[in-house]
Amino acid sequence: MPRFAANLSMLFNDAPFLERFGRAAAAGFKGVEYLFPYDFAPAELAERLAEHGLSQVLFNLPPGDFAAGERGIAALPGREAEFRESVDRAVEYARALGCPRLHAMAGLVSDERQRPRMREVYLENLRYAARRLAEHDLTLLIEPINTRSIPGYFINRQAEGHAILAELGEPNLRVQLDLFHAQIMEGDLTVCFRRHQAGIGHIQIAGVPDRHEPDLGEVNFPYLFALLDEAGYDGWIGCEYNPRGLTEDGLGWFAPWR
């Protein structure tokens, strides 16, 4: 049966962040993910997880200046030292929270002429991060993101991510399959999943095209959930969507798996 994790950066967003853990557990979620933990002490977050019997399944490495529009630094030339520091900081939190996987955001392409150099930096940084995480039995994730949600993001299609996996060959490097991004960029989700299943380390969902609950839009999520079960996918599915209203009022889709 699929295991669903509430993305606390987006769900239950009518409450202060630390109160969302209890709301997620009360709604029937067993796992949580979110963008970043760094505004809170690791012990404070670990206490919330333990109090509500939740697993921390994913969060991102520090992304640079997120408030100023940066969306990761892993592919940005000249930021290599900062990236290595971000890896160490994320590992500290992951160990405290028992989180087995971390996502490294690539960053934005400001000048297409720099893309070849960015790819070199990206691969160098990913190799470093994967080996650093391997010391603690952690998995590193990369995620293709659609060009509508984040224009200029460095990688956009699943095939790009899996080509990087093949090139680096790091055993703890995986690709995050966000079905929302994949549907917008390429569709054919069943074939996409089957083609890349071996390299997929985490899955996320949201309704397409408006990123609301996965019960409205152009994707047949019950079919895809059954497909994941049939294929033996045993990872988590992160619910990374913007609720149309109160989160609990939109969880009818979740009832069969609660």
Explain the overall architecture:
It is a single chain. The chain has an eight-stranded parallel β-barrel with strand order 1-2-3-4-5-6-7-8, surrounded by five helices. The chain has 258 residues and is an alpha/beta fold. Helix 3 (80-97) runs parallel beside helix 4. The longest helix has 20 residues, at 115-134. The protein is built from eight helices and eight strands. The relative contact order is 0.14. Helix content is 36%, strand content 14%. InterPro entries: HPT_OtnI_isomerases, HyI-like, Sugar_Epim/Isomerase, Xyl_isomerase-like_sf, Xyl_isomerase-like_TIM-brl.
Write the layout of secondary structure elements.
Layout: E1 3-7, H1 20-26, E2 31-33, H2 42-52, E3 55-60, H3 80-97, E4 101-103, H4 115-134, E5 139-142, H5 158-168, E6 173-178, H6 179-185, H7 189-196, E7 200-205, H8 221-231, E8 236-239
GO molecular function: isomerase activity
Pfam families: AP_endonuc_2
Protein name: Hydroxypyruvate isomerase family protein
Summarize it.
By secondary structure, this protein is an alpha/beta fold. The protein has helices at 20-26, 42-52, 80-97, 115-134, 158-168, 179-185, 189-196, 221-231, and strands spanning 3-7, 31-33, 55-60, 101-103, 139-142, 173-178, 200-205, 236-239.
Helix percent band: 25-40%
The oligomeric state is: single chain
Helix/strand/pairing category: alpha/beta
Average pLDDT works out at 97
Shape: globular
Low-confidence stretches: none
Strand content: 5-15%
